[in-house]
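Final report, results section. Input specification for complex C-07:
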Amino acid sequence: MDSLPHLEPIFNKLRRGYHFTPEDGEVYRTLWDRFGEYQRLFDSLGLDLKKHPKNVVYLVANDNVQPGKQARRMGLFMLVLVEHFGETHSSIVPSLFDTGFRIEDLPHLKTARYEEYMNAIDVHDADDLDGIVRSLVRFGFAKRVDTGFMLRRAAYRFLDLCREASDLKEGEAEEVSTSQDSAIDSPDLADSSSIE
Amino acid sequence: MSTPDIKTFFRLAHQHFETLEALFDARKGMRETELRSRLGNDSPHTASAGHVFRQFQTHRLIEPRPEETASFELTPPVRQLFREFRRKQKLSTPKAIQAYLDRLEELMERLDHRTEESNGPGVERVLEHIDTEIENIRTLSRSNREAVLNRVTELRAETMSHSVRERFAMINELLDDYVTPLQNIVQSRGPFEKRFSQLRVMLGEAQTAFSDEPSLVQDLKSTRARLRRVRRTVLENFEAARRETTRLYEQHETNSDILEGASSLLNRVHHEGADSLKLIEEMELASFRMRTVFREEGLSSYLHDMAGYEPPDPEPIQEPSSSRVPSVLDREELISDAHATCPIPDAMAWLIDERDAGPLRTLRAYRYLLQSETLSATFGDTRREYDFGDTVLSAVPVRIRVEEGFSSR
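Structure output:
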């Protein structure tokens, strides 16, 4: 088997939850082009290397060592950002990824509802928000820019969760509607004598 | 007052184009005083503003706005001309096309009667009307296509200040009000195809009935050709409008889904707290402490060999005699010794020398070293053997050093 290049930096970043994207240049290209070989190698260790359709490569945690609290903080932060962006802009993708965000302009602590969510995860001021951005950067979901930060395409993973939740909601609504229809159709529930 | 005259109509339009264009752009028309003032400023033309203003009305370029005699607007044909040239078409509801189809149906009945009566001149007159109606359908269809595409372009433009929800609602309205009903009309068994197909048959029958009148046969053939062209154009126009709208819908459906999903998840947090975000946990973000550094030559092929390896059943555990009870391996002490010794060029060799234990205890100690958060392990390249007397272990040497920031242990 040919040697796999950049194995050490790739593994060290992946095991910390980093998501590789084309912005990572040569290392990403190697990982993408020889994905099958890397995947087999990681599989030997019981690790699951994955590709996201938006050209993102990441490692999936396969035991109980996943950073639940951290993920929740990042997740809630992203949900607020996405909702606010959708309510103030005409589209979310791809413009969310073309926008530079300044910590001081973030909506998270500016409305009572969002502030309540943030307080629930122990976020009270701009420094706390910056801490979440640091995590997002560490996981490869965001990058620092002069004025603040920008999202990287790896953040599509959060958008996937939103779409999943939307599908789920639609599914539930359909189920309710179906059960209501069947209740109406059900002869047991209709008093035929009173209708006549 | 003079009578309307097409030549004067175009001359006036040419001379006062800017004023007419301003009137077209003024959604609520223009006050008479402003209109006269503009006409007065059209300096190259010597006629007085009052005279031109009256000519505008006589030759049907402008007319008073309904219930507002002091305000004027362009007459519908002039407005239509502007729209045509500026491609600012109005969306036509499919009802408009349906109205033309209904009118066509009446004309078809008349054509049928005239043909049965062998009334050649009557058929000729009906054909003229049929030509007009089907051309109207073609014009309306093209205009509608342009209007739909303009609307799609507007909705696609990021410059619009509408939110994702508002924009998605507008796209749905466009689909519900214009595209889907039109689809119902032009689909293969819809009224459009039905009428056109019936008309084609009727024209064929009339051609046979009047085969001894070459001029009429020619007219009938011409109408059939027109019918084919209109049918093709209407379907093309519809398809273009449908394609663009559907593409826009799909693009914004994604945005809408993302927003709805985010709101729905936040709503859940609102009612059930942040711990309810199970979906986030399903992202399974990796973060673990394994520090093994891959060295391809030494390890990768070994790892590949290991994949699918099924370990044999363990030996039964024997009751230890009191004299053979081994001392408990003190993990802390081991790590502390390792810290004191680091760097250790070969961990296994070090354990064999220092601990003088059997292979099982040595391997357990070896695992403690590799799993330590404060030590860093680097695998060597060449495999070597470690002799325990009864057992020989084969492994690549592992170099151990203290992880940065933990040297003070």
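The longest strand of chain A covers residues 48-52. The mean pLDDT of chain A is 84. This concludes the modelling results for the funded period.
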